[in-house]
Amino acid sequence: MKTEALSKEELLLAFEEKINSEQKIEPLDWMPDEYRNHLIRQISQHAHSEVIGMQPEGNWITRAPSLRSKKILLAKIQDEGGHGLYLYSAAETLGVSRDQYIQWLHEGKAKYASVFNYPALNWADMGAIGWLVDGAAITNQVSLQRTSYGPYSRAMVRICKEESFHQRQGYEIMWKMMEGTKDQQQMAQDALNRWWWPALMMFGPHDGDSPHTSNAMKWKIKRETNDILREKFINKTIPQAELIGLKVPDTQIELLSDGSYKHSDINWDEFWQVVNGNGPCNAQRLAHHIQVHNEGAWVRESANLSGNLE
Amino acid sequence: MNNKDTQGELWEVFIQSKPGQSFKHAGAIHAFDREMAIENARDTYTRRGEGSGLWVVKSKDIVAVTPNEEGYFFDPSNDKVYRHPTFYEMPEGVKNM
């Protein structure tokens, strides 16, 4: 039809014109391979993160300190699973099957947020994860609501709406602990100490070291750079910590006249170690996903059979 | 479809009003094949620039909840108030949350 008559240059021009005028790209629209491949990588990484992210919190369901907190934790983890499904569906519109995405995860070809390679050691970690890890994720996802790819954008809108309770439940846990005994206060501070830096790492490498940033910004897959998003998160989170008597584990913190904070840099050695598979829980997280996936194989097989009989 | 029917099949029509937004149900049309369905949908539902995107799906392929089972079908979520942000207590003066 019409598209066959156009050269690749003309198609690219029309594509970029669309992007520049803030129009969304939909699955059947022409798009450059690099755009498609970037989305395949980014959306699947995002989906895997939601699903792998269920593991550190799942660890605490049976040991939640009250029925109230157990119900909340279950609801939150159920949301993460659901968010994984929204994102896999968006990723599948790019022409890659869910089986393939999962295989790439299992083969180590696809990544997930490296923050989930840290262990959740005690109940205070449920507070820190909700407040900081979800807080960082929300900062990123609010920005991604304006991504140029339609299905990704719609998934983000849905996810942001649902996530609004995740961060609050985490902060509530931290606040209650800070109003409690000395031991509880120490637990909350210890959890903040351990999760602060991994949460900041969630935004990825510095813009200058981020191999994927330039096209992603040009084509509006990402709307704000890693560093800008990280600063936003830092600037809103430090006052939240101070309000309930917590101190972020960074001696360089200083409030500047423009309302932003001076702070130290991330330990990038640790960042790359964890990204490249050498974090405390990398092997465990992946092994668990593979095990559960294999154990569920018979369910998919029987469902397939019964579906075909209908 | 009854063998004597001569009107083609029923298709449900979904319109995306602006680029990037979700597709919303608009109504239905009759058509004999996919091409006719999308053209009939265009002619019936988007004569005034209502949409930037259009989907048609055969009505018989839609799976829906019937009104009389609506109550218990959606019941499991109604008592889970903690899924809403307003459920949580926040300290006085907290911002950006």
Helix-strand sequence of chain B: EEHEH
Helix content of chain A: 55-70%
Looking at the structure, the CATH topology of the domain at 9-62 in chain B is Ubiquitin-like (UB roll)
Structural class of chain A: mainly alpha
CATH architectural type of chain A: Up-down Bundle
List SSEs of chain A in N-to-C order. HHHHHHHHHHHEEHHH
**Based on the structure given, which CATH architecture of the domain at 9-62 in chain B is correct?**
Roll
- Major sheet strand order of chain B: 2-1-3
Radius of gyration of chain B: 21 Å
- Mean pLDDT rating of chain B: 87
Fraction in helix of chain B: 10-25%
Quaternary assembly: heterodimer
Q: What characteristic shape of chain A results from the CA principal axes? A: globular
The main sheet of chain B comes to: 3 strands, antiparallel
Distance between the termini of chain A: 37 Å
How would you describe what is shown here?
The complex is a heterodimer of chains A (310) and B (97). Chain A has helices at residues 2-5, 8-20, 33-52, 54-58, 67-92, 98-106, 123-144, 150-178, 182-201, 213-218, 226-243, 268-278, 282-295, 297-309, and strands at residues 254-255, 261-262. Chain A is mostly helical and 310 residues long. Chain A has one domain (32-309): Ferritin, core subunit, four-helix bundle (Ferritin, Up-down Bundle). In chain A, helix 7 packs antiparallel against helix 8 (150-178). The model of chain A has no long low-confidence stretch (mean pLDDT 94). By secondary structure, chain B is α+β, with helices and mostly antiparallel strands. Chain B has a domain at 9-62: Phenylacetic acid degradation B (Ubiquitin-like (UB roll), Roll). Chain B has 2 helices and 3 strands, in the order ββαβα. In chain B, strands 2-1-3 form a 3-stranded antiparallel beta sheet, covered by helices on one side. Chain B is elongated and about 65 Å long. The model of chain B has no long low-confidence stretch (mean pLDDT 87). The chains are: A mainly alpha (310), B alpha+beta (97). The interface between A and B is medium-sized, with 25 and 20 residues.
